[in-house]
DNA sequence: TATGGCGCTGTGAGCGTTCACAGTAGAGAA
DNA sequence: TTCTCTACTGTGAACGCTCACAGCGCCATA
């Protein structure tokens, strides 16, 4: 039975570039040229090929293409956070969707990889080297060696958030954490608060560090003393926020405002304050960070700092594709926006 | 310059099966056999090849393999929901992570595809046919033609939730919505509630339909009349829950319990009740569905029905891989669990 | 001793592309 | 007219792997 005849039963073999060439009355080479931009192809041939492609329903076999070009035309979204944060943090949704959509516009599929355990990490690293053109990395903890490893292996890479402790050769896209924190603290000060505390993020993350820095600077600018008792460490989780608020109330009962480094922690802070009988915002103003869905779910709704996640994802993809195309690594910092609601 | 020498500058060409064969002193065929299960290979050769693989750092070129086998050894996670639901619903996180991890255990990468717009849908369909071994489909709305199209194209497919209106030949994995609803309503009845309302999910989703059915049945079993004024349609969103609760209070001010078909809607219901001055659970008991993070974020914390998302994702992957392996489509229904907290 | 079978091994072909190269025709310049 | 250049086209050779097949030696059986 000849190859073109095996159509009757089972799944029909998909058309190849050969079929298109025959149908269009040209050679493989011409079809290939049409597929790759159509340069040096006569108008007549171009039209014939495009029509043949439509008639046959041809789609390029990406495996064959990748085999020879060495490119895979796919990109990995690599998450090395421990799973808790991934579960809880709604920002990942936005980021992931944004990246997927931005890549789709270039016809590039996104491979989702999660490296929670060491075994997963090794498996993913093995896969990435040679099977993926670039990596979108979400991994804020500085202890994480993944960024360095990938960079060393020569894999194009863009991190979400500034990778702490890496050399300057790794691309990243981040919100302007420091100025976001400044905006919030300045706002709290302007609304008349004078004992402004903060619940920080983990201080091995750039977000944690920069938001705290913004807090300190702004206090100084406003002429307020920086009281270390008002600085309570947190871990970005709701439970962490609850505990931090309890500690804060114990250390500084006279506190009248808290800048919390994430909305999720702010939810926890709110529930501790409620149990302690403090009214928000009358007794204590609470400011969050992220403008995640958690901000709307909180009672009262959170005044917070919006991170431009849609722009972050778009920029990550843009920078990554540029880098795959041979450009140098780049750092992009995007402005935040203060969102006024009920908690401050 | 010979091929093996171009190591000095730039990225070194990765080792091929040839390199491994030479290193191990055997032929390509033997290496290939080792790679594919090691049948009909002598212990000595097996050991030599494995050692050579380790020494050279060889990993199989999946493009070359796919080109000849016709398999891609990858799976798509296709989301056809409108984006709002994806953003808001924390269950997707759990589902997505579960699927990714379960697939990773089989060394199969997950391609994330989002078909919000018609153009995206077409692009994804074109990609899927021929570039992916199977599809994990998240698309509960019955108007969605994707399941039918994929099924017709002969692509192995597992849906999350029973696809409404499809023929019975599509595999799916779902929580036992009906019995989950029954458990909740029975519990409300047993705690002494007599005017039990419900806020439904969208009635073009199987979850919406089945949870409502469970509600109706249980009321009847408990000897309570089914009062249509107590049945308010919802859309799974927080705002929808707020509106539904307002309507409910207007239609039936004497209501003393609400079974809400999702936690997110239940959050909305709680905030309307709070504004209306109704105490939960004293005046009105509120029961949710999902046991999503929203249940813990609510005040009071939600009594709800847990959907076993971790098991759902594991089963989806299991069923899909079985189907890729040639087995028949299958339907899996997994039990839910009542979670007691403060709202009822 | 001949025969068959079995376990293991190597080899050639081919999967569907792209790429480099060679070749053709036609237009313009000499 | 002849030559050169340009625009276009076709062809063979890869890319790295798997598959089918043939061949080898060895043992058990006749």
SSE layout and pairings?
2 copies of one chain form a homodimer.
Chain A: H1 17-24, H2 28-35, H3 43-56, H4 62-69, E1 75-79, H5 83-88, H6 91-104, E2 110-114, H7 118-131, E3 134-138, H8 146-152, E4 157-160, E5 171-175, H9 177-190, E6 196-199, H10 206-221, E7 231-232, H11 238-251, E8 257-260, H12 263-275, E9 285-287, H13 293-297, E10 304-306, H14 309-324, E11 331-334, E12 337-339
Parallel strand pairs in A: 1-2, 1-3, 3-4, 4-5, 5-11, 6-7, 6-8, 8-9
Antiparallel strand pairs in A: 10-12
The first copy, chain A, binds a DNA duplex (30 and 30 nucleotides) through residues 16-18, 26-30, 32-33, 35-36, 40-42, 45, 60-70.
**Most extensive protein-chain contact, per-chain counts:** A-B, 52 and 52 residues
Strand residue percentage of chain A: 5-15%
Distance between the termini of chain A: 77 Å
Oligomer classification:
homodimer
CATH class of the largest domain in chain A: Alpha Beta
Radius of gyration of chain A: 26 Å
CATH fold assignment of the largest domain in chain A: Rossmann fold
Total number of distinct structural domains of chain A:
3
Going by helix content, strand content and strand pairing, the class of chain A is alpha/beta
What is the chain-wise order of helices and strands of chain A? Answer: HHHHEHHEHEHEEHEHEHEHEHEHEE
Indicate the CATH architecture of the largest domain in chain A. 3-Layer(aba) Sandwich
The strand order across the widest sheet of chain A is: 2-1-3-4-5-11
Can you say what the CATH homologous superfamily of the largest domain in chain A is? Response regulator
- Give unreliable regions of chain A as ranges: 1-10
